[in-house]
Each structure stands twice: as C-alpha cells, then as structure tokens.
Amino acid sequence: DAGITQSPRHKVTETGTPVTLRCHQTENHRYMYWYRQDPGHGLRLIHYSYGVKDTDKGEVSDGYSVSRSKTEDFLLTLESATSSQTSVYFCAISDPVKSSGKYNEQFFGPGTRLTVL
Amino acid sequence: GQQLNQSPQSMFIQEGEDVSMNCTSSSIFNTWLWYKQDPGEGPVLLIALYKAGELTSNGRLTAQFGITRKDSFLNISASIPSDVGIYFCAGRPSNNNAGNMLTFGGGTRLMVKP
C-alpha cells in the first residue's frame, strides 16, 4: 500500500481545456496539499486542505481550484489550462498527531507531470 | 511569502567526499526538515529537527537545527553515487500555522563529477 497515490501520472492537454488531478490517501491524515515544482522555483504551495470541505489558498493559487469531499481524496482542477501551468504537481499529506512518538510530517505522492500545449 | 535561502544551488560530488549544504531564513522556525528527491519521484523525508541546537543523524546524514532557529545544516559523509538527487530544506514557522504548512528552500542538486 503506497499510502498516497496520484492520478494520472502523466497528462498532455491543450490550452483552454479543463484538467482535474486526483490525490488519494489511505493514511487518514487530516491535512492535504497541492504543490507545483518548476525549475528554479522549488516547491510552491497551490492550495491546501485542513479537513473535509475545508480548503485554503497557498502561494500560487490563481487559475486553480480544489475540492475535498472526503478525507481520502483531494482534487486539483485547472478550469482552463494555460501553458504556464505546465509543471510537475505533487500532492502531500500530513497530520499533527504524533504516532509512535513521531510527528506525521508532510509525505509526498509520486507526482503528476502535466504538459499544456 | 517568506523564503528559505538554500545553498549551494548545485554541486558535484566525487564518491567518498563529504558534502555540506545549509538553509537560512530571516524568520524563526520551530521545526526544520530535510527531504531528498530522486528523479521522477516525490520528495522523501530524511531528517526532522524540533529543538534549537538539536543534532540528528540518519546513517551517513547529519543535520543540525541552528541555535538562532533561523538556519539548519545537512552534512553527508563519504558520499556514494546514490546520494545524487535534489535535497530540500523545509521549515515550519513558529507563528500560528493552522494548515501545518511548510516553507521550502529552492533545493540543492547533487550531481556526480564526470
């Protein structure tokens, strides 16, 4: 069990089309995050969720929306994809509760490579 | 938003060499984390630091939480080829952080000397 999966892993789409990326976790962690990774910019937070139906904006939220209807799934939607949204997208999960004496720090999924033509 | 300055941005290593990298901030953090990212994968947590002055090891990796709480260091001893990748520092601010959010450095890319 991978704990956190992302789908699709790769996607090529055209400018102006809607795109939805899915993050699924089996850890029952409270917090979920979407990041994008671009050369020279490291990891930048797009949106995050601190519970079911509780979401907030991150550093680079323009052009993106999210939804979390259940604990295990966090969806990232690009309503009308643009070439500037070509990137690698990572989902992460965390939980403030300690387990086995350690904090559940942010744990990342494998990423989705999105190309917008 | 606040930024973490991570250096160096990239470096070449030769097998057996020791490697050092650091992260600095203008703000105080109450947690410092170090992640490694292999090509095509997500970052993986290497070391977590929760107290100023704390020194923690994970195999050949050693990280320290700076006394000022504004910096952290990662050292890799006797590097091996599988150490190549991108290393990220991340900090959790000491102010109220409802989203349990982290601030990430820009990464240090380790490559093998040709």
Salient structural properties:
heterodimer, A: mainly beta, four-stranded antiparallel β-sheet, 11 strands, globular, B: 114 residues, mainly beta, six-stranded mixed β-sheet, five-stranded antiparallel β-sheet, 0% helix
Indicate the structural class of chain B: mainly beta
Which word captures the global form of chain A? globular
Indicate the radius of gyration of chain A in whole angstroms: 14 Å
Number of strands of chain A: 11
Unreliable runs of chain A, pLDDT <50, ≥5 residues? Answer: none
Shape of chain B: globular
- Annotation field: number of helices of chain B: 0
Q: How many DSSP E strands of chain B?
A: 11
End-to-end Cα distance of chain A, whole Å, is: 34 Å
Radius of gyration of chain B: 14 Å
Number of helices, where a helix is a run of at least 4 consecutive DSSP H or I residues of chain A: 0
* Helix amount of chain B: under 10%
Distance between the termini of chain B: 38 Å
**What pair of chains forms the biggest interface?**
A-B, 27 and 24 residues
Give the rounded overall mean pLDDT of chain A. Answer: 93
The helix/strand order of chain B is EEEEEEEEEEE
Subunit organisation of the chains: heterodimer
Q: What percentage of amino acids of chain A are in beta strands?
A: over 45%
